[in-house]
Structure formats: structure tokens, C-alpha cells
Amino acid sequence: MLNRQRVLSVSEINLYIKELLDKDARLSNVWVTGEISNLKWHSSGHLYFSLKDRAAALRCVMFQGRCRNLRLRPENGKQVIARGYISVYERDGLYQLYVLDLYPAGMGLLEAALQELKKRLEKEGLFDPTRKRPLPKLPQRIGLVTSLNGAAWRDVVTVVRRRYPGMGIVLAPAAVQGETAVEEIVAAIENLNRWGKVDVIIVGRGGGSAEELAAFNTEEVARAIYASRIPVITAVGHETDYTIADLVADRRAPTPSAAAEMAVPVRDELEREVLKLKERLDRSVLYRLQLMKEKLERLVRSRGLARPEQEIYSRQQYLDTLEQRLEAAWSLLWQERLTKLELLTARLEAASPLTILRRGYAVCRNLPDGRIIQASSEVKPGDRVEVILRIGALQCLVEEVEGERSWQGRRS
User: Fold this and answer.
1) What would the DSSP string read from start to end of 284-340?
2) Roughly how many angstroms between the first and final C-alpha of the chain, as a whole number?
3) pTM
4) For the segment 371-410, what is each residue's pLDDT rounded down to a tens digit?
5) Rounded to 10 degrees, what is the CA torsion of 348, 353, 358, 359?
6) pLDDT digits (tens, 9 = 90+) for 295-312
7) Residue 185: CA atoms inside 13 Å, Cβ hemisphere, count?
């Protein structure tokens, strides 16, 4: 018989049991209450402890990343509620609770679950105040999600009719407590968004116990409000009641009546404001007309309109004067520039080598490079030189070289 059985290793057994536990939906999110014992903070930042009651104990581990969000200080002997999942530590073959959140035992399971949901939705940004939209100044139609038989419906209708007679109100009826409440509230919000003919949605009900308000503390309702394209006002319970739906909504009102006052302006006040604006507009228009009338009268009395031809002639005469002044200025500037040019030309001619040559001087250049000869020492007998005269040039052969003194003595 043994030969027909497949023999498993310890690792295979542990892995098989781990897979069984991991696939169990009930064990993937469990709440466990008990007393902390064998508490140990590891140097890695992980927290190891056991939860025990009178009959049994359960090994627990809480990893460093989750420990950062602890809102209580774990101590041996303290009663707590832990939320997490059950799995197997394969190396030792031990099943344990992997703790995600830890709460004081006195707050109860429902409150602990509510706090966990709040933290998760807040982390996702559903409560971010920067995404909340302003309410319309003058809505044409109000959408209301509440029970048809509840007081909230009558309160909203009463307030809206008093503040703005004729304002449209559309009821999307939904149970606000009980097993079907969550589903009906979500469907009502989605239906109003699909219809798209309301400008603001009020979601609410009258006061009640925590159990009666439970539908407004659910993730489904919170996400439906968050996904709404139409601004949402929540009005759940009374002044002291505050739900997750209130945190997600664009505005929160303490009661349905307050929500109606928040959403709908007072028609009489709007009419008075419109009348005041009309009076201000009338005064502004009259004042503007008076200014334009006075300006027109001044123009009529002005010389330009009284004698337009004379004004044109006067302007033409002024242009003629400007033309004469421009011509005179141009003539003077031209004469100054011409005189300056003549002076510069005379100075240039005086410095010209040709002028010097006309006075009987000559320029002597060495051949063949054409270098100007300035002293007798720069040439020797037998060199060929070129003597440039005022008219023409001489090609010469040097026969004798004399110094400065001998030349001056011979000349005298």
C-alpha cells in the first residue's frame, strides 16, 4: 500500500495548507478580539504577539508598514480588536493572524470596522476638500434621495416651497434603513445622474440610532456620492450625527431642512436683489447718458463744428508754415555739410603725395620690390631704382652713394 501512496515533503504539506487558508474568503478579512500576550517589538520594526482568551491563544504578527498607523500602544494584558487575515508561516508550519489594524476592545466591532473604512477611503482621496464642488447659485430643479414615507421628504418640500415657490423637486425614493437601503440609495443617486436634469442632489433622512444610520456609513454609498457628476448635499440624522457619506459629500447639512435651505435661495430676497441691481443699472445708464449729452453739447459749441471750413484752412496754413520751416532748415543743413566737405577736401589735397610732387619733389623706390628709399644707406652702387616724378618716372642705375653731410656740402 505504501508504494501506491505519494509521499509529501513537509514543505509541500505546509504549502498546501497555506493555499487552503489563503483561498478561504472568510479568513481573508477577520476580526478577532482577545488579550495581548508575549508582546515583542523586533528590531526590524515588526510586532509579534499572541491574542488569547480563557481557552485558547492565536499567534499574531503586524508588519512595520502597518505598525506606523497604530492609534494605540500595544501592551501585554490589554484587550484589543484585531483585523487581518489568517495564513501559514511555511518555515515553522504555524498558522497565524497577519494583523492589518488594531483597536481598543471597548469601541466594539462595528466602530472598529467603521474607523478602518474611514482610513481606507481617506487614503484614496474621497474626503479631499479640494475636489468638493460649489453648489449652484440658482438651481432649476432639486433631486432628493430619501424615503417616500419619511419626514425628510416632507421637510424638504416644505422648506423649498416656502423659500422658492415653483422650484422643481424630483424624488428618487429609496429605503434609508434596512437590508435594501444601501442598494436603493446607490441606485437612486445613479438614476438622477443618468437623467441629468437636476442641478443638486440632497441625500438624507431623519435622525435615528447608529444601526438605523448604518447605510450611510457603507463603502457603496460613499463611492456613489463620490462618483456623482451632480453636487451632493448630505443630511443624515440630526446635528450630532456624522457619517462617512457626510465626509464624501460636497456639502454636509445637519438636517434635511437645513440642506434645503443650503440648496435653494429665497425667491423674495433674489427679487429684491434684482430690483436693487436694476435701480443701480438705471442710475448708471442715466448718468452715462447725461455725460454723453454734455459732451455732445460741447462739441456742437466748438469752433470745429461751428466753422469747419475755417478750421480746415487754419490747419492747412499751419502745414504750409511747417513746410517752409522744414525747407529752410534743410537748406541751412545742406550748406553746412557742403562747407565742411570743401574744408575736408582741401585738407586731403594738401596731404596728398601728388601735391608734393607738383612742387618739384620726387619719390625714389628700390627695384624690383618697390620699397620706398628714404636714406642713401639703403642702396649701393649698381642697384636699380625708380624715380617717380609729377609726370612720368625714371629707371636709374646707382653709380655712387653719398652720405647726408657730403650731399649738403656739395649743394652749398
Assistant:
1) HHHHHHHHHHHHHHHHHHSHHHHSHHHHHHHHHHHHHHHHHHHHHHHHHHHHHHHHH
2) 155
3) 0.52
4) 888 887 888 888 888 888 878 888 888 888 887 665 555 5
5) 90
6) 888 877 776 666 677 777
7) 31
